[in-house]
Amino acid sequence: MAHSLSPDHTLLLAVHYTSEANISALRTLPFGNPDALSVTTVLRILLTYLPESLDPPSYTPFLDGLVSGTLPPATDAVDPGPVAALSVAKARKRARNLPLLTLAHAACPASLCPDPLVQFLIHRAHRIDTETGLLPLITPLVEPFLARSEFLCTWYVSTVLPLLRLGYEYYPAEGVALALEQTEYVGADGGVGFLLRRAGEGGLARDLRGLAGPWVLGDGQRKRRRLNTGLKLEQGESEGTGHEWEAAFVWMVHNAVDRFPIVAEAIETWGGPADVDFGGYREGRYLDEELERRLQRRYVQTAFAAVFAAREASTATVGCAYRVLIRIADLMDAPRPRALDAHVDELPTGDVPLSQAPLGLEPAFLLERDAALTTPSADAFRLLQLLVFSAHLLMGLGHTVSIADAAKIRLCSTAEEQLSILQRILHVLSSSNRDDAEWIKIRSHLLWLRSWGSSAGLFTHISPTVLETELLKSFLATGHHTLVITTYIQPPTPPLPSATIETTIISSTLQTYDSASNGNRHRGALARASATLTSLRPFFPSSPPFARTEHLLAATHSLSFYSLSLPHGLPFRPVNIRASPDPIALLERLLSQNPGAYTRLDDLLSIGAHLAAAADPEIEGRGTERRVTAMAIEAALREDDFETAYSYVVNRLGVSPGATSDAEGKDADDLSWRAALAAGRHRAPPTSSAGPPSRRLEQRLELLSQALLLAPPSAVIEILTAWRKAEEELTALAAQDDDVNVRDTTGMPGGFMEAMVQPRREVGRGVEICSQDHRGIHRSTCAVPAFSHAH
């Protein structure tokens, strides 16, 4: 009978039934006896000896009846057999030495949770996890008693529920990789990081709502537990609001660096710290009103920070940033922004002072409480909106950037850096075919980017004049001449001064010219340069730069019909003309590389005139003509074409009364008399088919007389020396001819011989010249040509 058992026997029998998981037999024992089976003792026996793998529903009703005192009274059905053989003394000894676990656990110290049943449930939950790893057994163990204790409910929702969802519902393939024991002391960063590490596969918003949200419910319990055990709080727990949600905010910002679309999706669909899924175990507000307000503000700051933290420069980044911008507008009760593809007239406007934006764009600084870029405010929202639209427009212009990159352009870059970005954009745009309408749109977008519709925009350091000049260059480079006219020349108030427009047109034309590989103005780059000049010169009829450029193109085109190469076999390109300090000297190379080219003197003279005028349209052309003619004469002589050289000297190098006296004229005349002298000295080779020798000598004397007319006084002796030698040759030839004539006519009758021999014609008059030899200076007289003009 039950009443015949001693307290010690009863205790030992309870241990026996418990270890065998015989709950029905256990119910037959007399409970409530403070000496044997008090409620606390029974709970300790169950905690120590009841198999952890036992299905909780088999014993939770017993627990409920035990602690509520509603168990039925003991019956006579108790079987004392298991302990009947023990004497009272031995039973007492065994009872005293019986090892029983204490109910309190580190997770629920008595100071925080005095309820024995709650202590038992939490302690047993840990033992189930430790001994079996069967975490799902904890739910049926504690569920019947959640309404009994706020502490128990908070513990279960914040500790067990996240692990169950993580390992058995959200990511079942992974299982639970963290023991229940570990979650009791893990810090905020570690806990959030563990729970959200797989976020993205099922949605970060879901994991924030269903994992992190329940977990942070235990924020207060964990802090008290760590303080109770002498552990220090983590540094991060004292920052911001001091709540464990701060760890989630930091996690979101740091992950936005490389996983921004995932974070952006969560911001779009998650309501913030108040939006938590407690699985129906808890209803109503779990945060006090003030804390909830501060946490919500930090959540908005996290949304700002996530946009700036994203580092990938892509269309996806800008699109996500725009959606987050809309979400921020809703959270701040601000007007929603226009669509990203809105017309330029509908784009946002505003002026954000530079002082409103610090340089800290690293994730570690974006959540600081005084970070002006991310702290929710009207200025911060306006700046973010302008940056998002700027990044979108830049993307459309072929320059894809993140929002942080756009912020750096606005806040950190110098004028040179901003201009470099603008030039790269225009270079890329100019490399593809675009019609006038597209360029008009590009211009309007760049003007908005410069000013944001006010006084200072993304390209705040680029002046309107510089921007318009760069645009004008692009219009010219792409051949949009009509757009140049309608935008920069014909408007009542052109955006650029006329002088700037003229200079830019010429500079762009010459830049195109310099890139040409062929000098034909109907092909390639030179055709484009020619088209620019032809289209726009009518608007600058009196412009010397336009005239010079036209002469340059004309000369280049004419040169393209000749073979011409540079030293070392390098091909000739149009830019070599502009690079040469003396472009006319190129004609000398042309004559040396193109046999017979000297015969095209008029063409060469035209090229020379254009080259001279390209340097200065007002230049006097007579000197250039003489210089080119002299080059042709020398080329003719090199090719033994004396007759052409003679003709050029006689007909092209005559001295006019008004001959120039400037430096160019003197240089040209120097070449002219030397060319005439060279022709006068030229001797026909033995194989030459030239005419009678006397005729050639007479021509040479005539050329030397022309050289005297062109030469300076210092060269007269040299020329006369050559002239005297030629005259001596002529005299000797005449004497030889006289002897032949005498021999041939000795047999003629009468005075026919005398009639045939005529006196040599007068070819000059006697003048005195000075000559010098080793005996000193003496005077002599020789015949010099009769001059047609005074020397």
How would you describe the overall organization of this protein?
The protein is built from 35 helices and 2 strands. The chain has a two-stranded antiparallel ribbon. The longest helix has 30 residues. The N and C termini lie far apart (164 Å).
List keywords for this structure.
single chain; 791 residues; mainly alpha; two-stranded antiparallel ribbon; rod-shaped; disordered C terminus; endoplasmic reticulum; protein transport
Write the layout of secondary structure elements.
Blueprint: H1 7-19, H2 23-26, H3 39-49, H4 60-68, H5 81-84, H6 88-96, H7 116-131, H8 138-142, H9 150-170, H10 180-183, H11 188-196, H12 204-217, H13 219-228, H14 245-269, H15 289-309, H16 315-331, H17 363-366, H18 378-396, H19 403-411, H20 415-430, H21 436-451, H22 464-477, H23 481-489, H24 498-514, H25 524-536, H26 544-559, H27 575-579, H28 586-593, H29 601-615, H30 621-638, H31 642-652, H32 663-681, H33 693-710, H34 716-745, H35 752-756, E1 764-773, E2 776-785
Antiparallel strand pairs: 1-2
Helix pairs in contact: 1-3, 1-6, 3-7, 9-12, 11-12, 11-14, 12-14, 14-15, 14-16, 15-16, 16-18, 18-19, 20-22, 21-22, 22-24, 24-25, 24-26, 25-26, 26-29, 28-30, 29-30, 30-31, 30-32, 31-32, 32-33, 33-34
What overall form do the CA principal axes indicate?
Answer: rod-shaped
Quote the distance from N terminus to C terminus.
Answer: 164 Å
Overall mean pLDDT score? Answer: 85
Strand order of the largest sheet: 1-2
Estimated share of beta-strand residues: under 5%
Number of helices: 35
CA gyration radius, whole angstroms: 54 Å
**What's the assembly state of these chains?**
single chain
Residues in helix, %: 55-70%
Based on DSSP secondary structure assignment, what is the total number of beta strands? 2
SS-based structural class? mainly alpha
Low-confidence stretches: 657-668, 743-791
Main pleated-sheet profile: 2 strands, antiparallel
Domain Sec39: 11-738
InterPro entries: Sec39_domain
Organism: Trichodelitschia bisporula
Subcellular location: Endoplasmic reticulum
